[in-house]
């Protein structure tokens, strides 16, 4: 019996590696972006019934796992507060080094409030570059203002 | 006598607030992006002599402070490993929720390696939107592959 | 010279205690709720020019402090991640004990998403009760759904 | 053999997902609020014999599990001191940003003491709103004064 | 200008040491237990006007400090989550070693709930003993039951 | 094969819940206080051969488990440095709020030294009280002075 | 079914110890340095198909494990942020004691930037020495400058 | 009056920046490596009388500071256990990613023991390279074996 | 299949308790001190082939376990940075309370350097004493000086 | 005005360095061991009136400081839970590596209980040795047994 979403994620990863499945193909199969689809498969988003069944078929998951995919998961994909993996750490470093800068510039443009991480999307693309290709990422989040009351 | 860069940052912030200086004007004055300029003023980047003197003039800094601006600072702009400020936390949350997703997709496209946080730039823009304006951010970092040796 | 918002908060608290000012009177003076007003005085919200000047007058603050009140502050009012003060700890305890319950029930009603802490208001009232008066608090936050993209 | 309450909670969650049980139906079955009932099923409250047997029947639990439901559990529902799940984090953020405000206002109204998290109830409701529905939560806790001795 | 209660505590301790004042004498002067009185002087309890004035006189405090003594303080007297001082650590050790035991026995006697740390008193006494005198401490806290709702 | 004391504690708890055993009855069976007996069953104290055999019989433990009960365990009964369970947290809170007070008063009475947590006993009793029954706890620890050498 | 790289690393270590395999022989078999090869076997680097198959044969790994070796792993080889093992701790100590020195000297020579840990190699050699042999390590990392933008 | 080595380090850094002193020139003045000299100036090593006087002259330090330079300091140059500065973090990352590899290879060559961080030297050099210059670092530490006793 | 040294340690402890083996007898069997022998059995030291076979026979270990005993282990015997067990905590307390004292006195006698924890031995003995027997421990570590380079 | 013992320790250290005082001479002046005397001067022990006056004279302390020396201090001499200074870390390492060994051997000899860190003394001596002089330390602590009650 499956008692949490982490077991489903582990089953997906095991199937992905043994079958050589690609995230972009999974995304195409459910007709959504590769970013959202991967996050969902890694236990961070909630799928609807149809999406879950497609995912279940691709990875060969049991019915129970398909049910879990339709439940809002306890989110957070990192084992430690400061990530040790170098790729993920660079992102943490950007937040650490540029954190106050991002805050100052958003406040200068919009006033007090935040950039939403819920009404949010992300797009990761390769940019060809003669000095070495670049990873280009566009983050888009709705500005949510603090209001007085 | 000034004994660290934090004192220079504090002096810049104090002058900024009391004089009502805008980051975008400072950036224009040294002819660089508002993102890099703000980060430099907040103690995260190193200015050359000419840039430092312009900054010193804008904020009314003593010569010693201008000297400190030309020294590579001890970087890291946040007081705690997990930021408490809601705007900055949302970025930490993105790294936490999407961390493994970013890792999977960059590896799927590029193989093992990282997206540089050094050969890196950031551009923050307002996107008008009838459902509420959005903050759009483009991050661009060179892909650096792990190689065998 | 004032170099951060914490110094302004300290000046407000010092004046509040020595002059015996009440938060509810401050709130009435700027025509907003006592919850928002107190949070603003404690360095968590941003005041507009008129509000800041009223606050400055009430607490006898210098012009520089009035300028700082109009700048979006670095938020977070607690000295440690787990609060030691018993009154505040009880709230942390509620989040700890009921955290998963809140998550389950909001998801059951609304689907995956969050209750906003930005488009948010709070109202704290005394409820007379023969077994001992109660603190009644109403929290109201907009539901923000995760969407697919 | 079941050796702790966490195993019972896991069994309840597994059954809930595979059978599609709703918390509000469970609450109706034992005649209590959905908030208390969910917390109890998630290992935070103690059930009496009759309630435990109803829960056991709904989720198909073995007798041992029903016995564990009647034992006061080691409480705390979060895996880390600062929650990573965005929905729960927003509540932590409220405590962090408004912590001192809550403290000031309760003390201003009641004097020194706390709002109980034991003689406490919580009610979570959807409020229809043309700008987007809201989550409204009422927290009610007895005020407990510090006394001299 | 005094901007927090810690400065008042520091002034009390400095005066206590330089004047050789005893806590038991301070307690007698305000007619309360030595435990409550000491905690209040160390910034953990709130004094009424009359008590604060007596304390102010004993320790030679300025008026502002006397005002601060009447404000509910941010409580917590230890610099680290796990105390390093051997005397205080032994108490932490008792909680660590006997924590589950205390929990089991209170639940066995009273059912689910807590022993209040607010409706609480403490009495510390020397017990003469031929094998070495003992510190005897009586802790008394009201039992507060969790109730269903 | 049992490889640590935690497995023995888990077996004792499982048997206690499924058989409905009471700590006070266990204590009576080995002729010691309920506090020491419970702590021993929860893996914090060392039993002699005769006591261990009685415990083994009551809880239906295998011989190996009975052997482990006679070995001094690695002590510490809490899963986190700051306990999340509300009942145990209240004790941590007492240490935190009253820590310096306890230190000051023991030093005022005895001089520099500690109250032993080893040559120590604890007695937990219900005190009937018309305003709600109270938990009364007597802690008794030998005073151990620091000496010069 | 193998669901993460740690299980592969455990299988490699188990085989290494029971068969008495040496890292330098493994390195020779895939024609790379002993440093990179060992890191790869310990779950820190990604092998290509041919390398993975050789490793799989040497350690007797199942096909699934060979597939995992070709996937970029979540890196970080230490169980705690500050390593407890004395050999590894000495390296952490070097970073702690000499950290600012390394920073100052690289900045003095190269300006602001970093020494890459990705475009990086390491060579560990024994140096015979009459006062006791020495471990000599050469670290080589590309300098990556921060640039203005 | 100077009461700790950190104040001396701060004075050295302030003088270095305002006077534009280079570490390599300081090293030449006392006839030692730039690595050891910089570490000493940054409060990590102990200077003899003659060296301290030269340093005192170069940086214009008072006699008390020169005395402090001759006292073994409390070592450790980083403000947090995991460094936030990107240059220093890369070194921490090397220890984290390669930690077990370093351990395995030193043990394979030398048996159980450590590479000393005391009988240790470090040499940092620029290596010209058409693909971008490299930082080359040689670490040399005596191997110290664990022995039986 | 055994995949780490901790499993060997667990097997040794399980056998020790079920068979009633004494550390001093184990030490005698391999002809070394009880301190080194116990540390080795607890996974902190490396045994040679002959020693490992004797240990294997005493505790009834499989061949694989005997192989693991000859591999340098990842050292560190405590589950938390600050130990919770009272006996071990007292040692941590000694380091905490006397840490700076030890540092000052070794530097006063030897100059800057350390007392080795590798070229190190420990001897624990009972000292009969009419006021209660004492634990006497002799620690002996080679002094290793920091040298200039 | 002196408001805590740390200021007294800082004054002692400043005077020690500027006057070149040796701990062994201070110890001789008050007729106690160098270990206890140094610990007392570093804020870890309590001096009697006569001792405090001698210390005050040696270091040129004001009367208030002499008063503070006679007050039991808040003990703990290290700035972080895991010490960064290499000399002190080696002691922490001994506790970490040998912690369980020490526990096992003391329990084997004495049964369950602890080695006191209060009824405790320490003696640090140089041992001449042709392979390099050694630091020999004798720790002596009373064994305190856990008893049943």
Automatic annotation (TrEMBL), chains A, B, C, D, E, F, G, H, I, J:
Keywords: Lyase. It holds the Pfam family Cyanate_lyase. The keyword Aminoacyl-tRNA synthetase does not apply. Its EC number is 4.2.1.104. The keyword Acyltransferase does not apply. Residues 77-149 form the Cyanate lyase C-terminal domain. CDD domains: Cyanase_C. It comes from the Bacteria. One of its GO terms (molecular function) is DNA binding. HAMAP family: Cyanate_hydrat. NCBIfam families: cynS, PRK02866.1. This is Cyanate hydratase. It comes from Amphritea japonica ATCC BAA-1530.
